[in-house]
Amino acid sequence: MNTDTLAINTIISESLEKSMTYPEYRALVINLVEENSSTGNDKSEAMANYTQLNDRRMRRWDKTGKVAEDLKTKFKDFDKKITWLVISESWCGDAAHIMPIIHKAAELNDNIDYKVVLRDENESLMNQFLTNGGKAIPKLIMLDSETNEVLNTFGPRPTVATNMVKAYKEAHGVITAEFKEDLQRWYNKDKGQSTLEDLANLIG
Q1: E strand or H helix at 95, and its extent?
Q2: How far is residue 189's CA from residue 183's CA, in Å, rounded to a whole number?
Q3: What are the residues whose beta carbons fall under 8 Å from the beta carbon of 10, sequence distance 6 or more?
Q4: Apex CA 76: angle with CA 149 and CA 187, to 5°?
Q5: Would you say 140 and 84 are in contact if contact means Cβ atoms under 8 Å apart?
Q6: Most distant CA pair in the chain: distance in Å?
Q7: DSSP of 137-199, one letter per residue?
Q8: Which of 133, 156, 154 is nearest to 143 (CA)?
Q9: Minimal CA–CA distance to 46: which of 93, 83, 88, 82?
Q10: What's the average pLDDT block by block, 10 residues per block, for the chain (204 residues)?
Q11: Is the overall model pTM greater than 0.90, yes or no?
Q12: pLDDT value of residue 81
């Protein structure tokens, strides 16, 4: 094992020790809403407001998210022990749409261990899994549960949404508030199916 691999393994092990389950993460967010606060280094009113909005989004997907039968079979039949370690924060809009859907998939198979860590509390981990040089979240790191070897990654958005963002940036230079609203509408219409398809491809 080379020095870089050893360093990454150490960072991952330390982050897993600090990780929480998805139900624990949901309980944390609900508590933050009651306190009018948020996770992360920025405790501004704006972040608290985003956290409240995201709690409502997650509550909706927790209740209504469904896995199509063909994908359900693929998740259920997966026979290797893996960990889906997700880096997130309560204020992240993309995470609010994606994290409950990850939970729906992970619930189908005891071989899939779904863990959550907070970005600002795990900077060393985040820096290993940047997207185009940025600390974009949510980021799912798929690990071999026995060795913590990194097998694959997903995020910060499903492939379809990633392509939408890329095309808009190329055409307009920046992401506008109007586009962000369009993206929220896309998530609502997609109902998590693009995320589920990407997760199914992740496990092969």
Answers
A1: helix 93-106
A2: 10
A3: none
A4: 85
A5: yes
A6: 48
A7: S-EEEEEETTT--EEEEE-SS-HHHHHHHHHHHHHHSS--HHHHHHHHHHHHHHTTHHHHHHH
A8: 154
A9: 93
A10: 76 97 98 98 97 98 97 96 98 98 98 98 96 96 96 97 95 92 96 98 93
A11: yes
A12: 98
pLDDT of the residue at 6: 75
Report the side by side order of strands in the sheet with 150-154.
20-21, 112-118, 82-88, 139-144, 150-154
Between the two ends of the chain, the Cα-to-Cα distance in Å is 26
Q: What is the pLDDT of residue 3?
A: 61
How do strand 82-88 and strand 112-118 relate by DSSP bridges?
parallel
The length of the chain in residues reads 204
